[in-house]
Design brief:
The protein is α/β, with parallel strands linked by helices. The chain is built from 19 helices and 18 strands. The strands form five sheets. It has a seven-stranded mixed sheet with strand order 5-13-12-11-10-6-9, with helices on both faces. The protein is globular.
């Protein structure tokens, strides 16, 4: 029999969907599930078997059976029942890991989310006056007290904040920005493309590494220019022969020409962390920009949000933009943001109360103690299958913040006796909860700076599972 005949023969042997359904309906996993879900799982199983036959090389065809189809359908049902968005153990050493959800929330933020989501809330209801209010009222006073800004609104992320401000102040006009600040950050978010979508016309000045005030002077025109834009280069640094115009100098130019100045701070640092030269939001407000934008989930350490603050008249104009309704913050994010901001205002130990800040500022001795404890537990549990050693290393803040700043850390370096580093990393990723680590020099590295003390139980359990499973 030639290859084509064999392939046709196996395709003819595919079980029918109704045959798989009969078997599936008799299983415990099928209980309480609708017939449509079960039928879809059976169709999925048959499609998987068909694809295997069509893609198989000559001589490797697998005879499709009802049992195989049933097992595939059962796996499909289990996958549907399991949440897709899951907690993971972050052992990468990247504190604001964009792919892992950036900043973990403080306990008060979590409790605020639960309280607000259980029932109704005064999201847009003024309890004192008994009439409709603004959702921004729950954080505007906190933001003013913390930063010194006259007014503020909050949208769903900083990209939305930038889009909204540009659309309000510069649609149909030029937005003047240095070439060295036309950045791209995570998720292919590019400043030039956001400007285009906002309706603003990009006017580049200077060069990639050097922009002077004379470049802005030549470009700014009170009739053609909608705003002057300064962008904090969150995720990279230009080193060497560089020059940029400080925000206060741009503010002076804007006042003189009657053009508003926007400062996109990106990460939004509200506290001096002592680990880099990141400007704080308070600094930016003092420099006098008309409007400032930044994230709520990076160096601020709260939920994903885009915060817009500045001069009252400018911010009020932005708030009235109809686009704001499409970008506004939801009640759960607002609850978490309010709780996080209260820590900054009321707590004397804010870097200890906000998890992301705690991870950035924790002493290396404390990190080492956690690493030593983890190593001891792993060695006791699965030392016959793995080799564990401590190594000094470097963590990163991540999230497009402090790109050149390395934070000292302590790593648990793991070598498996019967697995490659790649196979071990994949197996840890397949655990429940998944343990996300990194690989270097054929070792799996567990960075203790991004681990909580409670993560040790999950990591030990994951290694026990790998040890029991044996070589892949």
């Amino acid at each position: 029999m030639n290859v084509n005949d064999a392939r046709r023969d196996h395709l003819k042997a595919l079980p029918r969907v109704d045959q798989v359904l009969v078997l599936l309906e008799s299983t415990a996993e099928a209980e309480a599930l609708s017939r449509q879900v079960l039928v879809d799982a059976c169709r999925f199983a048959v499609d998987v078997l068909r694809k295997r036959i069509l893609e198989a090389a000559a001589g490797t065809f697998e005879r499709p059976t009802l049992e195989t189809a049933q097992n595939i359908a059962l796996d499909r049902l289990r996958a549907l029942k399991a949440p897709g968005l899951r907690r993971v153990v972050n052992a990468t050493g990247i504190i604001l890991h964009t792919n892992l959800g950036r900043a973990p929330l403080c306990e008060e933020a979590l409790q605020a989310i639960i309280a607000v989501s259980r029932g109704y809330s005064n999201l847009e209801f003024n309890l004192h006056e008994g009439k409709r209010g603004l959702r921004y009222d729950h954080v505007r006073e906190l933001l003013s007290m913390l930063t010194g800004a006259e007014e503020s609104i909050v949208v769903n992320n900083n990209a939305a904040a930038v889009l909204l401000v540009l659309n309000t102040l510069s649609a149909g006009k030029e937005a003047v920005v240095s070439r060295g600040e036309l950045i791209e950050i995570g998720g292919e978010f590019r400043i030039p493309e956001v400007m285009e979508k906002s309706g603003a016309r990009l006017r580049e000045v200077g060069t990639t590494n050097r922009t002077r005030i004379a470049d802005y002077e030549e470009a700014v025109d009170s009739e053609k220019t909608g705003l002057i834009l300064k962008v904090h280069t969150s995720n990279f640094r230009t080193i060497g022969f560089t020059e940029e115009v400080p925000a206060p100098v741009l503010v002076e130019l804007g006042r003189r020409r009657g053009v508003p100045v926007m400062h996109d701070l990106g990460s939004g640092c509200l506290a001096d962390l002592g680990i880099g030269d990141e400007p704080t939001v308070q600094d930016a407000v003092q420099w006098g920009s008309d409007v400032i934008t930044f994230s709520g989930d990076k160096l601020l350490g709260g939920p994903q949000a885009g915060i817009i603050l500045g001069r009252r008249g400018v911010v009020e104009t932005i708030r009235k933009n109809p686009l704001n309704r499409a970008l506004r913050i939801d009640k759960l994010t607002l609850a978490a943001l309010e709780a996080t901001l209260r820590h900054y205002l009321l707590a004397t130990n804010v870097t200890e109360r906000i998890p992301a800040l705690r991870a950035m500022t924790e002493s290396v001795d404390s990190v080492r103690n956690r690493a030593e404890n983890l190593l001891g537990r792993l060695d006791e549990a699965v030392g016959d299958n793995f080799s564990f050693i401590l190594m000094d290393g470097a963590s990163l803040s991540g999230g497009g913040a402090l790109p050149t700043r390395e934070i000292p850390t302590v790593l648990v370096a793991v070598t498996a006796r019967n697995l490659t580093a790649q196979a071990l990393e994949r197996s840890l990723r397949d655990s429940d909860p998944p343990v996300i680590a990194r690989i270097a020099d054929d070792q799996v590295l567990l960075d203790s700076r991004t681990l909580h003390n409670s993560d040790a139980d999950d990591i030990v359990a994951a290694f026990r599972r790998v040890a029991t499973a044996g070589p892949a």
